[in-house]
């Protein structure tokens, strides 16, 4: 069984559209994350979220918003897509504590035309 | 704020040769350090982690890393490279104020027959 899953795996869309990427984890973790990997493979945290707090990387445009219907899901909604949003987006999860290891999903490759 | 520097964006070794991937970190408090591997078109997989226990950490697939506080380093090694080790490797430091990861720029390991 997949621990952290994301859908879709590939997403191609036009500039100006709104899209969502879904993430689910079956590890029972209390914290989930979204990361962006650019074309040069550089990985950057976008959000950290558990049922108590949302931590937003200050560099993330407010067009991006995480939505969590429950503890096992953290979806990423993006409004008014721009060319620069093209990247691979990774979801991750962890259980807060000393052994706070993050487990990553397979990624969603977003291409904005 | 923490930061991670990976020296060498590309490393090429022959099959059977020693693998050495360099990682230096900057942290004002004792860090938690991680190495992840990313195979082509896949998500990140945890190789190993340092959480202030033993300074020599053994991971999966024969990899290990040594935490050296005096050098602020956490280099990844493997005695004998295998063709299947070809991938992108990321070093990361965890934010002790929360649980966000800061990644280095990644090192692409190429293994020649």
Protein traits:
A: 113 residues; mainly beta; 7-stranded mixed β-sheet; 4-stranded antiparallel β-sheet; B: mainly beta
Spell out the blueprint of helices and strands.
The complex is a heterodimer of chains A (about 110) and B (about 110).
Chain A: E1 4-7, E2 10-13, E3 19-25, E4 31-37, E5 43-50, E6 54-56, E7 64-70, E8 73-78, E9 87-94, E10 103-104, E11 108-112
Parallel strand pairs in A: 2-11
Antiparallel strand pairs in A: 1-3, 3-8, 4-5, 4-9, 5-6, 7-8, 9-10, 9-11
Chain B: E1 3-5, E2 10-14, E3 19-21, E4 24-26, E5 32-38, E6 44-50, E7 56-58, E8 64-68, E9 73-78, E10 87-94, E11 101-103, E12 107-112
Parallel strand pairs in B: 2-12
Antiparallel strand pairs in B: 1-4, 3-9, 5-6, 5-10, 7-8, 8-9, 10-11, 10-12
Describe this structure in words.
The complex is a heterodimer of chains A (113) and B (113). By secondary structure, chain A is an all-beta fold. Chain A is 0% helix and 54% strand. In chain A, a hairpin with a 3-residue loop joins strand 5 (43-50) and strand 6. The termini of chain A are far apart. The model of chain B has no long low-confidence stretch (mean pLDDT 91). In chain B, 0% of the residues lie in helices and 52% in strands. With 113 residues, chain B is mostly beta strands. Chain B starts with a strand and ends with a strand. The radius of gyration of chain B is 13 Å and the shape is globular. Chains A and B meet through strand 5, strand 9 and strand 10 of A and strand 5, strand 6, strand 10 and strand 11 of B.
